């Protein structure tokens, strides 16, 4: 089943159940908390916070999401994209736990002939919050899931809140068992690669105070109107229904890998290190195009810096795969063809998207050329200082300068060093990076606190029942700066 059909079936299912279909919001919303929209509920926050009256009691959407915090996982795990599509259903003080569980269960287990996804119910596992026996009871009652396939988790994994006093509630996650060839027995608690998380249900029922139930503190009250917020990963459903090993091989990403094979002359599925690069290219090319479409330009901080990093990683991955020539235009072209059916702006705005992406590629290729000159000089110096018969070593400080001043990524330095018969003091490099990361974190923290626009929370604060303190995306941003 193609991704397009998976989306359509989700929306149809919930529209039939009385939900209003709401289009995806832009990836860029004016939210002081977030670099990018990272979940379906973000555009509905004012309803959940009681700041606005929802125009409908129930809604469904497929939201564009970007999670920079998952960047290190890309290509390494089988299930993390930086851009993905989160399908969701939402109840604003309307239906609650039992219906949320029933709606999800019906869609995933109904046969494909009848409009569902047709998953074998015997392979579905669920988790529930340890202090939410009601959810487990409902999974037994509504879905007939036996106790052996219901696992409990603590607040860190299965409690949701916004990081600030306000609404919160237990979650229940739905997993599909891909089988013993994918990992250990024992359910999602034991292995999240074998047991693939496909859907997260949030039962917004509590008011949390200063201290989060995530960390074991009890909520301070009960919400007068209970809400439902769910998120299902479209790419993960596609992975399962298309019978492929990972999200990068699904129908909207694999053709980018095919294009990368043509451009680099190397094949996917031969060397693990190459495969990771192919997947990084597929993932990042799509994310970059979607970000540019929503108005992000490469830059030196914030959103622009994330985009710059993504585009540069594409160039460097392609180069490590052996591409000598520019690649970006080709990648943008294939992404546009794949995504335009759901996101027409990728086609109508293609010329601009291509210009922005190619501009960054050109600039980075220049940087690499300059860095290569410094690299060659360094090699000469190291060789001259190394007694014959010994292997010379590029210092951590030189590797760091190449990275920091010339934007020369460490894996490129390592590869070129090994071609020149040298090693690199990687540990020294990493410790200099760690110091820099620490500084970036402190800067980001200072910046966030300096620029946060607190006005949207003012009303709540005025009511005296909340206070704005949390910055969920902070760690993600600091990580991506590395
Ligand atoms: P994981 O534990 O696998 O990182 P999560 O618990 O962080 O996922 P949620 O925040 O619950 O994910 O998001 C709801 C759903 O969105 C998930 O159940 C999953 O299907 C999907 N999803 C989350 N992160 C990603 C991602 N990086 N790439 C693709 N799909 C994702
Ligand atoms: Mg995650
Ligand atoms: Mg999870
Ligand atoms: Mg989850």
Explained architecture:
It is built from 17 helices and 11 strands. The chain is α/β, with parallel strands linked by helices. Strands 1, 2, 3, 4, 5, 6, 7, 8 and 9 form a 9-stranded mixed sheet that branches. Strands 10-11 form a two-stranded parallel sheet. α7 (254-264) runs antiparallel to α10. The radius of gyration is 24 Å and the shape is globular. The two termini are 38 Å apart. Adenosine-5'-triphosphate (ATP) binds next to β3, β8, β9 and α6. This is Alanine--tRNA ligase. It catalyses: tRNA(Ala) + L-alanine + ATP = L-alanyl-tRNA(Ala) + AMP + diphosphate. Its cofactor is Zn(2+).
- The CATH class label of the largest domain is Alpha Beta
- Tally of domains: 2
Could you tell me the CATH topology label of the largest domain. Answer: BirA Bifunctional Protein, domain 2
Assign the CATH architecture of the largest domain: 2-Layer Sandwich
Our count of helices gives 17
Low-pLDDT segments, ≥5 res: 451-482
């Amino acid at each position: 089943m193609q991704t397009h059909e998976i989306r359509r079936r989700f929306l149809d299912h919930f529209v039939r159940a009385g939900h209003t279909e709401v289009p995806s919001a832009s990836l860029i919303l004016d939210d002081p908390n977030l670099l990018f929209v990272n979940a379906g509920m973000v555009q509905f926050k004012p309803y959940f916070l009681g700041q606005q009256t929802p125009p409908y009691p129930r809604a469904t959407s497929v939201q564009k999401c970007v999670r920079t915090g998952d960047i290190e996982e890309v290509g390494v795990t089988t299930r993390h994209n930086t851009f993905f599509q989160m399908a969701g259903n939402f109840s604003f003080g309307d239906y609650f736990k039992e219906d949320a569980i029933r709606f999800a269960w019906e869609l995933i287990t109904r046969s494909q002939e009848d409009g569902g996804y047709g998953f074998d119910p015997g392979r579905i596992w669920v988790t529930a919050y340890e202090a939410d026996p009601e959810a487990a009871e409902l999974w037994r009652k509504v879905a007939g899931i036996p106790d052996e396939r219901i696992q409990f988790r603590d607040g860190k994994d299965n409690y949701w809140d916004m990081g600030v006093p306000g609404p919160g509630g237990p979650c229940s996650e739905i997993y599909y068992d891909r089988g013993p060839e994918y990992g250990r027995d024992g359910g999602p608690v034991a292995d999240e690669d074998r047991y693939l998380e496909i859907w997260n249900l949030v039962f917004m029922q509590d008011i949390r105070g200063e201290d989060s139930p995530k960390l074991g503190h009890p909520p301070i009250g009960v919400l007068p109107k209970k809400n439902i917020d769910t998120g299902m990963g479209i790419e993960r459903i596609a992975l399962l229904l298309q019978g492929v090993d990972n999200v990068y091989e699904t129908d909207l990403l694999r053709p980018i890998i095919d294009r990368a094979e043509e451009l680099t002359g190397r094949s996917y599925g031969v060397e693990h290190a190459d495969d990771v690069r192919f997947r990084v290219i597929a993932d990042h090319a799509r994310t970059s195009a979607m970000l540019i479409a929503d108005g992000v330009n490469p830059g030196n901080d914030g959103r622009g810096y994330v985009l710059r990093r993504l585009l540069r990683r594409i160039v460097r991955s392609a180069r490590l795969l052996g591409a000598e020539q520019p690649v970006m235009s080709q990648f943008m072209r294939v992404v546009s063809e794949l995504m335009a059916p759901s996101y027409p702006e990728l086609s109508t705005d293609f010329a601009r998207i291509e210009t922005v992406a190619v501009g960054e590629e050109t600039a980075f290729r220049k940087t690499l050329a300059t860095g290569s000159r410094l690299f060659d000089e360094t090699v000469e110096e190291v060789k001259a200082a190394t007694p014959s018969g010994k292997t010379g070593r590029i210092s951590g400080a030189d590797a760091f300068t190449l990275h920091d001043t010339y934007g020369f990524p460490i894996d490129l330095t390592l590869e070129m060093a090994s071609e020149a018969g040298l090693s690199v003091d990687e540990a020294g490099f990493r410790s200099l990076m760690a110091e820099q990361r620490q500084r970036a974190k402190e800067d980001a923290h200072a910046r966030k606190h300096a620029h946060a626009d607190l006005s949207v929370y003012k009303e709540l604060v005025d009511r005296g029942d909340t206070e704005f303190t949390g910055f969920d995306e902070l760690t993600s941003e600091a990580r991506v700066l590395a």
